[in-house]
Amino acid sequence: MNITLKKISKHSSSGSTPKKGNSAYYEGGTIPWLRTQDVRFNEIYEATAFITELAVKETSAKWIPENCVIVAISGASAGRCAINKIPLTTNQHCLNIEIDPNMALYKYVFYCVCSQYEELVSRKEGARGDLNSSRILSLEIPLPSLAEQKRIIGILDRFDALCNDISTGLPAEIEARQKQYEYYRDRLLNFEPIAK
């Protein structure tokens, strides 16, 4: 069964960019503020920019809870996604989707959205190549049981660690090459007489 992102979201919203000319919105800011250049098919544990409490109070920049699926909606980054592992705020070029945990696991949804990047890119419009929330939320993903979603996440997490975590992937690759070397070494140095 396929289902749209809209039907499995508890809440969705875009962020805001507080007026750049107002230093009170940025100077000394401690509130993590995510920009689309930081949305790179990743988990986000820290922000590279910050805004102030005044910015949250006076603008439409609002806190989102951790573990939202964030999809970039504008320009070159449109269609890329991430998961925020900390509560934070975002700019207006991010669509923040809080997943209903009774229907889907956020990490499963993240993997599904990643796998449909090309489909999202094909939905871009305008000179800048933008998406909008309705185009993203109408994206359909397969929806197996929560137990099956958990199993799929486990498999994909292991592959991701092997491919992207040097402390996991590199030792595994070295071990595989070592076994390959030993196999060929033993085969090449086997000088058993050929049967006549």
3D architecture notes:
There is one protein chain. The protein has 196 residues and is α+β, with helices and mostly antiparallel strands. The protein is built from six helices and ten strands, in the order βββββαββββαααβαα. It has helices at 53-58, 106-115, 117-122, 133-137, 146-164, 166-188; strands at 2-4, 9-14, 31-34, 42-44, 50-51, 69-72, 81-84, 89-90, 94-99, 140-142. The strands form three sheets. A five-stranded mixed beta sheet has the order 2-9-6-7-4, with helices on one face. The chain has a three-stranded mixed beta sheet with strand order 5-3-8. The termini are far apart. The mean pLDDT is 91.
Offer a concise description of the structure.
This protein has about 200 residues and is of the alpha+beta class. The chain is built from 6 helices and 10 strands. The strands form 3 sheets. The protein has a 5-stranded mixed sheet with strand order 2-9-6-7-4, with helices on one face. A 3-stranded mixed sheet has the order 5-3-8. Strands 1-10 form a two-stranded antiparallel ribbon.
